[in-house]
Amino acid sequence: MNCKEILKYKLEKKTAVAGVVGLGYVGLPFAVEKAKVGFKVIAIEQNPVKAEKINRGQNYIADVSDDELKDVVRRGLLTSVSGFDRVPEMDVIVICVPTPLSINLTPDLQYVESVTRSIMPKLRPGQLITLESTTYPGTTEEIILPILKQSGLEIERDFFLAHSPERVDPGNLRYSTKNTNKLLGAVGPASLEVAIAFYQQTIENLVPLSCPRAAELAKVFENTFRAVNIALVNEMTLLCDRMGLNVWEILDAAFTKPFGIMPFYPGPGVGGHCIPIDPHYLEWKAREYNFHTHFIALAGEINRKMPEYVKDKAIRILNHSGIAASQARIMVLGVAYKKDVEDERESPAIEIIRLLKKEGSDLIYHDPHVNRLANCEIDMNCSPLNALTLSSCDLVIIATDHSNIDYQWLVDNSLRIFDTRNAACNVARGRNKITLL
């Protein structure tokens, strides 16, 4: 039997050892899913504190079940280490590391490259490497493959390589790692065959594609689609503000059409690990082909302006009540980038806090999912949400519409509300206190 046949046999019998590099919002749920179906999983988490937490069965990702994590750890199916010494034991190595942007909105692949260089010297015949991190088309074949070839092993004979982009949606109670359709593009037919054998043990439906670039582009397009449509409704919000119209009324009316339209809603900006970042990966790559992605550039520009707009409108609200921004105490309610999650990465709420601090305002925040903010020049602890705290605030800005907030109680106990998410849409009393985005 050759390397491909041996690896396929081990995968089918679930005797293969799965390696997962990076135990964040993508890696940990995937590692637990593989362990749940019977694979032994060795996870590499370079943060030793997190690695040790996993080995103690302590969960830190909301989308992972505490009981399921404890169970697979107790049964010895999931182990976490902080180095790469155990790479030779792994039959499959899944890379789930961040792919951020530089300050100039260009791709930063330092984590992908660093992990690949750490794997390469320990590569042995009969291993599959897959990249799940979202990136620009060409990363798998232009960045990862040349590094792995330095091992002296031959691709498609000795080792196999594929890209299967993550589709994690934190806080989504309907779609999880297991039941979300999974894209799969490999560098050749042998790699695709092995990758299918690996992923079909865990994922309900695979979508094989012609090559890694197709999978990479499809994932970036998904997030670009959302970014462009969010920018469209955000721009509509700016127009409605000028025209004195309620953008939420306009959108709800438009979305009653049963065909030809899809609901998107405005907000104080976009956040998270996908929408503010991934479209710029495609924008950057397109320049290599002398192609300018106008929609992506414009969408990014509009979405990045929303925190500034929120700041300006907050100042207007205060001014109408005779309160200067420099004398105002403001609570930002919700700093996570989306409702019901603890993830504040790229959250527009953080930029809103920063901008209002520059105006001299006294800022506090409350978020039931985020105990502390330590981001650049911002270092704040979560303030309690009670009547006394609210009565001391000149304005409450709802930046994230968490579900476990009683918005009627909030309005009853607040002087003024600036609702950027239409979270208080069902509030009956005190609507005169509410200003919408």
Characterize the structure shown.
This protein has 437 residues and is of the alpha/beta class. It has 2 domains: 3-211, Rossmann fold (3-Layer(aba) Sandwich), CATH 3.40.50.720; 230-436, NAD(P)-binding Rossmann-like Domain (Rossmann fold), CATH 3.40.50. It contains 14 helices and 15 strands. The strands form 3 sheets. The protein has an 8-stranded mixed beta sheet with strand order 3-2-1-4-5-6-7-8, sandwiched between helices. A 5-stranded parallel beta sheet has the order 10-9-13-14-15, covered by helices on one side. Strands 11-12 form a two-stranded antiparallel ribbon. Helix 7 links the parallel strand 7 (182-186) and strand 8. Helix 1 (3-13) runs parallel beside helix 7 (189-199). It starts with a helix and ends with a strand. The mean pLDDT is 94.
